[in-house]
UniProtKB/TrEMBL annotation:
It holds the Pfam family Methyltransf_3. It comes from the Eukaryota. The keyword Nucleotidyltransferase does not apply. Belongs to the class I-like SAM-binding methyltransferase superfamily. Cation-dependent O-methyltransferase family. Keywords: Catecholamine metabolism, Methyltransferase, Neurotransmitter degradation, S-adenosyl-L-methionine, Transferase. Residues 245-264 are annotated as: Disordered. This is catechol O-methyltransferase. InterPro entries: SAM-dependent_MTases_sf, SAM_O-MeTrfase. Its EC number is 2.1.1.6. GO terms for molecular function: catechol O-methyltransferase activity.
Length: 264
C-alpha cells in the first residue's frame, strides 16, 4: 500500500520517460536480446509474435510490404531482425556483388532473407540456416509469403557448424559470393574457418557480420586483423562489419592442418 502511495506521484514522470525514450528502450532491449544468445527465452520471445504480425498485416506476394511490416512491428516491439539501417548496407552489397550463391547464417523470421532474395539476379540463390526448428518454420513461411519459391532459396534447419559441411552438396562446383552471419557472434570465427576449410569462399567473396561490435566477435576481428593478405575490412555500420576476401587471395586449403593461419 505504502509502495503505491510513493509511486503514484511518480506516475506522470514514468509515463513521460517511457514515451520519450521508447525508441531508446526498444534499442536497449534489442541489444540485450542479441548479447544473450544462449538464454532459452531469447528465440521464443519474438519469433511467434513477429511471424503472426507479419503474416496478418503484410500484402502477400510483395517483398517490400513484408519488409515494411517488419519495420512496423519493430516500432512497438523488441525485434531480432537485422533492421532497416543495417538492411540498407546489406542491399547495397547484394546489388554490387549480384551473387549467384548467397549464404545467411541465422534466418530467424526471414527479414534479411527477404531483403537478399528481392535483389538477387535471376540466377541467384540463397541458402539460409536456422538451428531452431520452430523458428525455421516461421522464417520459411514468411519467405514464401513474400512470394519467393524453393527454387530460389533453401532453408537448412540445423546449427551452422553442421550446415557448413553440407553446403558443397548445394552449390556443386561453385563458390559463395556473399555470406551474412547474423546468428551468434561467438560462432563467427569457427564458422568462417569452417567455410574456408570446405573451400566455399572464393576470392572477392563479401562477408557481413551483423554484431561485430560485441565482445564475442573479438576473436574474429583479431583473426582478420592478423591476415591482411587474405581479408580487407571495408566498413562497419551499426555493428555490421563488411569484409572482403581479397580478389587475388590464394584458394583456401582443404584442411586447416595444411595452413596454420586457419588453425587458430
Ligand atoms: C539475430 S537472429 C537473425 C535475424 C535474421 N537474420 C533477420 O534479419 O531477421 C539470430 C538467429 O540465429 C539463430 N541461431 C543462433 N545460433 C545459431 C547457429 N549456431 N546456427 C544456426 N542458427 C543459429 C537463432 O535461433 C536466431 O533465430
Amino acid at each position: 500500500m505504502w509502495l503505491l502511495a510513493i509511486s503514484l506521484p511518480l506516475l506522470p514522470v514514468i509515463i513521460v520517460t517511457v514515451t520519450r525514450y521508447w525508441g531508446g528502450l526498444g534499442a536497449l532491449y534489442r541489444h540485450l536480446l542479441r548479447v544473450t544468445p544462449r538464454l532459452p527465452w531469447r528465440r521464443a520471445v519474438c519469433a511467434r509474435s513477429v511471424h503472426g504480425f507479419v503474416f496478418q498485416n503484410c500484402t502477400h506476394g510483395r517483398p517490400e510490404s513484408v519488409l515494411e511490416t517488419f519495420h512496423l512491428y519493430a516500432r512497438t516491439h523488441p525485434s531480432l531482425s537485422l533492421g532497416p539501417e543495417r538492411g540498407e548496407l546489406l542491399d547495397e552489397v547484394v546489388r554490387r556483388v549480384a551473387p549467384t550463391w548467397a549464404l545467411e547464417l541465422g534466418t530467424h523470421c526471414g527479414y534479411a532473407s527477404v531483403r537478399i532474395l528481392r535483389l538477387l539476379p535471376p540466377t541467384g540463390r540463397l541458402l539460409t540456416v536456422e538451428h531452431d526448428a520452430t523458428t525455421a518454420d516461421f522464417g520459411e513461411e514468411v519467405i514464401l509469403v513474400a512470394g519467393f519459391k524453393h527454387s530460389q532459396f533453401q532453408l537448412l534447419t540445423c546449427p551452422s557448424k553442421d550446415a557448413i559441411p553440407r553446403l558443397r552438396a548445394h552449390v556443386g562446383a561453385e563458390l559463395l559470393q556473399l555470406v551474412l552471419m547474423d546468428h551468434d557472434a561467438g560462432q563467427y570465427l569457427p564458422d568462417l574457418l569452417a567455410l574456408e576449410r570446405e573451400g566455399l569462399i572464393g576470392p572477392g567473396c563479401v562477408l557481413l557480420f551483423s554484431d561485430a561490435h560485441l565482445p564475442a566477435a573479438r576473436s574474429l576481428l583479431e583473426h582478420v586483423a592478423g591476415r591482411p593478405q587474405r581479408y580487407a575490412a571495408r566498413r562497419q555500420v551499426h555493428g555490421l562489419l563488411e569484409l572482403q576476401r581479397h580478389p587475388l587471395a590464394t584458394p583456401a586449403p582443404q584442411s586447416s592442418a595444411q595452413d596454420p593461419s586457419l588453425s587458430d
